[in-house]
Amino acid sequence: MPQRIIMDVDTGVDDSLALLYLLASPDAEIAGIAATAGNVPAAQVAINNLAWLELAGAPDIEVALGAADPLEIPLRTTEDTHGPHGVGYAELPIPTRRVSARSAASMWVDLVRERPGELIGLCTGPLTNLALALRAEPELPRLLRRLVIMGGAFNHPGNTTPTNEWNIHVDPEAAKLVFDAFSAAPADRRPLVCALDITETIEMRPVHLARLAERAGSVPVETVAPEDPSEARSAASNPIVRHLTDAVRFYFDFHHSYDLGYLAHMHDPFAAAVALDPALARTRPATVDVELTGTLTRATTVADWAGMWGRPPNADIVVATDPDRFFDRLIARIGDYARARCPGDPAPERIAAEPG
Ligand code: BDR
Ligand code: CA
């Protein structure tokens, strides 16, 4: 039986891979996609998801638009990390479908109420819309089967300020509301938290993209490199592989520009994999809270591992995994899906330019 899952995303290069991973997973059924403002504005997030769904030949999965702004502060976006439209150098076809008539928060509430205890939540963006849903339905933690959150940094530096992870930084009030709400939930409903401590060990490299292309039967199998000019575009015959290569190459360039190597941290697809199969991760319970007032540390996630606050754990933080196992699964699933869904598009305008 496929597991029903609601995605809440700020797509985003790595959110794009999370979406493709779930589409490609026979054990997943995406019940809806909440478009949350973060990497790019919510409307662009919705367009990106609709575009990927169409490109990937997916069914008409509902995409619901989230709030334009975080709960209490202005929106900050990060086009320098994810490209001008959030999908790196990729230029996705303009989608023909439109967003749902209901809001992202309403979709969350309706979906959890529909089948109590069945739905898995996966949040790979700021927690704005989940927080709005929790305000509307305080029982949501009990109605969900499981929640997986990509966010936070615990015994690890931040990626936005010295102590802030991006998703929490964009809407710290929402993040606090979510962790507070789960404080009252039973232990088996505690969110699984994939923070930077673990997601920065999930390093995608050009060889992973090449293996994915090979698995998809896409030609030519390309190996992107830091020397590639920014205006270069993939000529891969498979449209999923082609657009993915253009998207991820931007993310490689971004990480490279910060001296992290020619690689990209695949935060969100890892969280997606954990949402489907928690056995991929080893976790440790902790009480998580979000700093809202620090002059230097606002939006920092703090984990009390030892019960010093005298409050029961409200999260299970992922502390270990096997990145190779994850990448093998990602390559096999997305590669096979791309081969089956989008066989042989000759990308004529690019191939025509090649000699011979
Ligand atoms: C998170 O921030 C975003 O830029 C990524 O998509 C990921 O969800 C990592 O901090
Ligand atoms: Ca994201």
Rg for CA atoms: 19 Å
Q: How many β-strands, per DSSP?
A: 11
Q: Topology as H/E string?
A: EHEHEHHEHHEHHEHEHHEHEEEHH
Mean pLDDT, all residues: 95
Q: Quick one: biggest sheet?
A: 9 strands, mixed
Bound chemical compounds: beta-D-ribofuranose, calcium ion
Number of helices: 14
Q: What is the terminal-to-terminal distance?
A: 49 Å
CATH architecture: Alpha-Beta Complex
Beta percentage is 15-25%
**Name of the CATH superfamily:** Ribonucleoside hydrolase-like
* Residues in helices, as a percent range: 25-40%
Strand order of the largest sheet: 3-2-1-4-5-6-11-9-10
Shape: globular
Low-pLDDT parts are 347-356
Which fold name fills CATH's third level, the topology? Answer: Inosine-uridine Nucleoside N-ribohydrolase, Chain A
The CATH first-level class comes to Alpha Beta
Which structural class should the secondary elements be placed in? Answer: alpha/beta
What is the count of distinct domains?
Answer: 1
